[in-house]
Amino acid sequence: MSKKSSNGTRKIGRAGAMLIAGMLLLTLMSMPASAIGIAPGRTTVNFEPGMHQEIAFRVENNEHKDMKVLFRVEGELAQYVKLKELLVDFSAGEESKMFSYIIDLPQSFDKPGDHEANVIAQELPKDLKAQGTYVGATAAVATNLLVKVPYPGKYAEIRLDISEAQVNGTTVFIIPVLNFGTEAISKAKGTIEIRGPTNEVLATLETNVLSIPAKGTGELTAGWIANVNAGKYYAVATVNYDGKLAKAEKVFGVGNLYVEVKDIVVKEFTLGDVAKFNILVENKWNEKLDNLYAELIVSNDKGDQLASTKSASTSIEALGQTTLDVFWDTEGVQSGIYNTKVVLHYGDKSSEKQLKIEVTLDKIKTSFVGATAQVVGVEQKGILQNSALMIAIVILVVINLGWFIYMRKRKT
Fold first, then answer.
1. What are residue 194's DSSP bridge partners?
2. What is the 3-state secondary structure (H, E, C) of 36-66?
3. CATH number of this structure's domain 5-149
4. Is 34 helix (H, G, I), strand (E, B) or coil?
């Protein structure tokens, strides 16, 4: 996320009622939620005057049991949200159901920025007899509605995603840029500082350059050959967009990636059904690893998390390969390209791989995110020495070739 002082001022200035509502939501979310799930966790929309829109969401019956679910709306935008159903029944055989709500927004808001509401789904106790709203010690989950009211002029927010790598491998940095202003951004370019454990700058990377329309999104990328020791490192991304700055920071790892994602394939897919992701992984370690599982996180271009699903745990033999199966229910999902992250968990370690998935009516195509980048203003002795050596070799080859041609001509 970008760290803009205007954001802090706006958040501090929220009314006490919003604070109370937020505390209530946190309380609800901290309660046991194993019996009921909801997706997506957030839906972001760009404000339009008088906007009328229907938004779909899914409620999951995780324990496959008979239950009643109560819906209600809380938050600043509650008055603009209309639920199509208030109380629904689930049978033990129903794994999930699709629902929706309607938003009717006003012609304007007094302040730009974020405006929110939360649609809460709460499991009701089995012995409920009385009619009306009931708030008891039962599981509750929420899907968040986030309305982005444009800022006058140019205003961007960013985040930083990282595909980690082995020592001497290429670490890939991805910076999604979201333009929440009323004007287009002519030129957005990022720099990424790589810092070591003592905060020293190890490298500075430059990304590609983009222009981004008003209310649009773009993606900046850079790559870094991690010729450093294994361990934790720190990345600071700064995006300059037409003279304005946005920043994001993240800790990432280099090396110690004992398990690596080699390939991801989806076969026999139909949009609206459950997609099965076959994730081929390889154990780089010379010992067997237990309790290995994969987590698939799917987000849209606005950063809304649409799904988070995990594979079963398994073991992988030393230097061996195995396939982890992850399932994604695409009911209510639209065709398009989605940002996706695969996180491998094993023991007390984890590693991330960024990819894109293209969803069509009968196919899901996957591709890993790659990048090229220019390294500037850094002292990296390994890279400089390697480059100098390569140049010297090329010069020697040219000299020897020229001398060989010269000698042959003299003999003739």
1. 203, 235
2. EEEECCEEEEECCCCCEEEEEEEEEECCCCC
3. 2.60.40.10
4. coil
Fold of 259-368: Immunoglobulin-like (2.60.40)
Weakest-pLDDT range from 11-25, 262-276, 389-403: 11-25
Looking at residue 378, its pLDDT comes to 40
pLDDT at 25 (0 to 100): 40
Residue type, 56: A
Q: Cα separation of 70 and 80, whole Å?
A: 19
Rg (CA), the chain: 26
- Its CATH class, for the domain covering 156-254, is mainly beta
Q: Please, which residues have CB within 8 angstroms of residue 277's CB and are 6 or more apart in sequence?
A: 264, 265, 266, 296, 325, 326, 327, 328, 366
Cα–Cα distance measured from residue 345 to residue 343, given in angstroms and rounded to the nearest whole number: 6
Global pTM? 0.72
CB of 175 closer than 8 Å to CB of 72? no
What average pLDDT is seen over the chain? Answer: 84
